[in-house]
Amino acid sequence: MIKCKPFLRWAGGKTWFKKHISDFLPIDGYNQYHEPFLGGAAIFFHLQHSPAFLSDLNLELIETYIEIRDNVEEVISHLKKFKNTKEFYYDVRASKYRSRSKQAAKFIYLNQTSFNGIYRVNLKGEYNVPFGYRSKNFFEPDNLRLVSQALQGTNISQCNFQETLNNIRENDLVFIDPPYTVAHNDNGFIKYNAKLFDLEKQHELSEYIDEIKARGAYYILTNAAHKVVEEIFTKEGDSMIGLSRASLIGGKSAKRGAYKEFIFTNTIVND
Ligand SMILES: C[S@@+](CC[C@H](N)C(=O)[O-])C[C@H]1O[C@@H](n2cnc3c(N)ncnc32)[C@H](O)[C@@H]1O
């Protein structure tokens, strides 16, 4: 196992879930690993299972992973020339580079030096997050090299989650971490997400899970703890487990009505 950590700040990142994932893995192991909503890849870096199929709809994100896998030294050499100043930030933000490795360096640089690291684009598809005034180093070359090693041999592609079905076979494991449509424990929709991943998409995701099961593969889905989500994803024989970030439900934070997530899975049979 290569000791590396995610190199991006990513909304909905699952670093907090690392300590729970082993409770959900199939007891008898699994063949291929799939992560169709890759984002910052916290769970992939934690498991480093091979073979792995990693994908996301975000093209710039995926091109960055591919460059880190195939061309990490060039990405690092570009990053070394970037400066964490306001003027430099807006210059880089407005630039389009022909070199793929420089584009990847730009993606990492903006992610690390921007205001809150969220990926937000305007109607023209241009990244529009302001400068962050962060004093921290914006990249760690040694970690990027380790990330590159961990990515060797992985299949990385940009696609909609449904397309990943082409590679899913019996006894594979699919870790599914979609954008959350509804706010945790409350009735409201997350408005900025509504267009991106609406309730209709959640229904499509439920059908995608049915397809995974029909192939005899395993899934672990994380989602908002909300009754609408419960209705969509409850499947006969499968399990739904509530988690708060701090502990399993029933802990102190649950009593305070803290943030909860639901995990749906067919790795734990509910009889
Ligand atoms: C909650 S984040 C995943 C976070 C990740 N597990 C981590 O640890 O950082 C959801 C991801 O889904 C991606 N996404 C949104 N719609 C998608 C779709 N239709 N198909 C595939 N990926 C999608 C977003 O680009 C985003 O990276």
The CATH topology annotation of the largest domain reads as Rossmann fold
Q: How confident is the prediction overall: mean pLDDT?
A: 89
Ligands, ions, cofactors: S-adenosylmethionine
Helix content: 25-40%
Report the end-to-end length measured between terminal Cα atoms. Answer: 35 Å
Query: Helical segment tally?
Result: 10
Name given to the CATH architecture of the largest domain = 3-Layer(aba) Sandwich
Question: Could you spell the SSE succession in H and E letters?
Answer: HEHEHHHHEEHHEHEHE
Instruction: Characterize the largest beta sheet: strand count, sense, and whether it forms a barrel.
Output: 7 strands, mixed
Number of strands: 7
How many domain modules?
2
CATH homologous superfamily assignment of the largest domain: Vaccinia Virus protein VP39
Report the principal-axis shape.
globular
Beta-strand content bin: 5-15%
Keywords for this entry:
7 strands; 7-stranded mixed β-sheet; Adenine-specific Methyltransferase, domain 2; alpha/beta; 10 helices; Rossmann fold
